[in-house]
């Protein structure tokens, strides 16, 4: 026992170093695995405040008034888009004698909320944005986030006033998209190499693809409304061994100077998730 | 100004510079991430005990991590250089008793060549570990090597600029033992 204490005293610095090192690494890998860390919620609140202070100064240079007006305008236009609504099943209602409901009325499926970006990164392999709208502003995890130019990412973690968004430039991010021309679906991912390009996989070779083709969101990815801009095909990577294309895509969103985003709340997301999960259970 | 206050101000300033200037810059090349923040660890006083050096390094790295949303990444690298620092200083100190007569490592206290070696070795170590952690599943060795070397070069340039712009006067103290 005495020797153990002597050993600890003698190598205290090295052991202390090891302990802190293990602590740091466990933070790092637990976080990557479960997308959450013990302190992340509280720290988002603190770093968010600092980011916000900085953004207040920086924002002055970005033409405050014009920007705000444009965002409001955009928001209004987005709300009017027909993809936000879905028609009720009108064939059922036709048998009613007196129409109590306006059968042409549509129901809101996506609610759009604007949020200011107060922090962002593009230099790592896993990049996040911090937005100034949290649980008090009806943001919940798994909501989609789009920018004025195209999709941005998915909400990952929410504190009271801030939320962190897993950006398209994150190695674990994946979203289902489609080609505008043919409608073939594939998944967008990022390989962590160049923040200017992402990769689109799983498009069958039967599809017609050309450089510069537009890629849009698909309603399959229940987080985004259909037909939101994702990016354009920059290069078709030749790969003869596979039946699927690998496409190098230039994202429409400029992640370096994004100031405002829209958080998309799919009002039927929970319902859809529930029925999908229960279906999976039934098969098992 | 007391050393504690000076270093506390540096702590905040280095984090702010790293987060709001260097991280905000559009990337020059995919190999290059400019890092300067760890200069704080390099500038800590000579007379700090090794345990507190490691602890300060860890806390410093962790506070940067919370801004970049990568808990543990920079903390691990900072702890490593804080641990290795005393060995390197022990090897490189050329002037007799410089670690007693001066407060912290600088060009004046250590001399040009030893100080540059000291920063280069620790910068390289810091970047190697950081990129290795970032790329635990890295596929191409060229990417790893390229990123380490390019980032080290850029960081070293930044450190040199900082040293020249913010020249730290160091008083020669006698009767310190």
Characterize the structure shown.
The complex is a heterodimer of chains A (284) and B (177). In chain A, 31% of the residues lie in helices and 30% in strands. By secondary structure, chain A is α+β, with helices and mostly antiparallel strands. Among the domains of chain A are: 40-86 and 108-168 and 261-269, Rod shape-determining protein MreC, domain 1 (Thrombin, subunit H, Beta Barrel); 175-251, Rod shape-determining protein MreC, domain 2 (Thrombin, subunit H, Beta Barrel). In chain A, β3 and β4 form a beta hairpin. The longest helix of chain A is centred in the N-terminal third of the chain and has 23 residues, at 12-34. Residues 92-96 of chain A have low confidence and may be disordered. With 177 residues, chain B is mostly helical. Chain B has a single domain (3-165), classed as Arp2/3 complex 21 kDa subunit ARPC3. In chain B, 67% of the residues lie in helices and 0% in strands. Chain B has helices at residues 3-22, 39-42, 50-68, 73-92, 98-101, 107-110, 112-134, 141-165. In chain B, α1 packs parallel to α3, α3 (50-68) packs antiparallel against α4 (73-92) and α4 packs antiparallel against α7 (112-134). At the A-B interface, α2, α3 and β4 of A face α3 and α4 of B.
Please give a quick description of this structure.
With 284 residues, chain A is of the alpha+beta class.
Shape annotation of chain A: globular
Major β-sheet of chain B, in short? Answer: none
Element string of chain A (H = helix, E = strand)? HHHHEHEEEEEEEEEEEEEH
Q: Compute the CA-based radius of gyration of chain A.
A: 23 Å
Low-confidence stretches of chain A: 92-96
How much helix is in the residues of chain B?
Answer: 55-70%
Report the end-to-end length of chain B measured between terminal Cα atoms: 22 Å
Distance between the terminal alpha carbons of chain A, to the nearest Å? 55 Å
CATH topology of the domain at 40-86 and 108-168 and 261-269 in chain A: Thrombin, subunit H
Which two chains share the most extensive interface?
A-B, 38 and 31 residues
- SSE order of chain B, as H and E? HHHHHHHH
| Helical fraction of chain A | 25-40%
What structural class do the secondary elements of chain A suggest? alpha+beta
Low-confidence stretches of chain B: none
**Strand count of chain B:** 0
In total, how many beta strands of chain A? 14
Please report the number of helical segments of chain A. Answer: 6
Backbone shape of chain B: globular
């Amino acid at each position: 026992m005495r020797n153990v204490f002597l050993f600890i005293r003698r190598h205290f610095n090295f052991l202390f170093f090891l302990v802190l090192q293990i602590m740091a690494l466990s933070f790092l890998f637990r976080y990557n695995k479960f997308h959450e860390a013990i302190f992340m919620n509280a720290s988002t609140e603190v770093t968010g405040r600092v980011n916000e202070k900085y953004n207040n100064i920086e924002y002055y240079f970005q033409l405050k008034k014009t920007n705000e007006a444009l965002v409001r305008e955009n928001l209004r236009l987005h709300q009017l888009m027909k993809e936000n609504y879905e028609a009720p099943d009108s064939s059922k209602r036709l048998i009613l004698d007196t129409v109590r409901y306006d059968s042409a009325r549509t129901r809101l499926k996506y609610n759009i909320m604007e949020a200011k970006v107060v922090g962002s990164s593009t230099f790592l392999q896993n990049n996040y944005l911090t937005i100034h709208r949290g649980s008090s502003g009806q943001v919940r995890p798994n909501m989609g986030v789009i920018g004025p130019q195209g999709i941005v990412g998915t909400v990952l973690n929410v504190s009271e006033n801030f939320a962190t968004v897993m950006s398209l430039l994150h190695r674990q991010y994946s979203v289902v998209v489609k080609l505008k021309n043919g409608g073939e679906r594939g998944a967008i991912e990022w390989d962590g190499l160049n923040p200017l390009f992402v990769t689109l996989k799983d498009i069958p070779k039967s599809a017609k693809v050309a450089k510069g083709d537009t890629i849009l969101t698909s309603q399959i990815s229940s987080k985004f409304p259909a037909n939101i801009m994702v990016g354009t095909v920059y290069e078709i990577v030749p790969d003869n061994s596979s039946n699927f294309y690998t496409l190098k895509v230039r994202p429409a969103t400029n992640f370096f100077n994004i100031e405002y985003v829209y958080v998309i709340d799919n009002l039927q997301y929970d319902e859809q998730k529930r029925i999908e999960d229960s279906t999976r259970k039934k098969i098992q | 100004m007391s050393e504690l206050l000076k270093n506390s101000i540096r702590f905040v300033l280095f984090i702010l510079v790293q987060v709001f200037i260097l991280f905000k810059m559009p990337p020059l090349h995919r190999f290059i991430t400019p890092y300067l923040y760890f200069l704080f660890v390099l500038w800590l006083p000579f007379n700090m005990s090794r345990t507190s050096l490691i602890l300060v390094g860890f806390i410093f790295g962790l506070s940067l991590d919370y801004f970049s949303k990568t808990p543990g990444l920079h903390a691990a690298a900072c702890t490593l250089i804080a641990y290795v620092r005393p060995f390197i200083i022990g090897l490189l100190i050329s002037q007799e008793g410089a670690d007693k007569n001066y407060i912290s490592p600088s060009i004046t206290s250590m001399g040009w060549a030893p100080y540059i070696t000291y920063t280069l070795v620790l910068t390289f170590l810091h970047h190697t570990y950081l990129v290795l952690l970032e790329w635990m599943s890295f596929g191409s060795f060229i990417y790893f090597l390229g990123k380490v070397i390019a980032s080290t070069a850029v960081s070293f340039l930044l450190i040199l600029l900082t040293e020249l712009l913010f020249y730290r006067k160091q008083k020669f103290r006698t009767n310190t033992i």
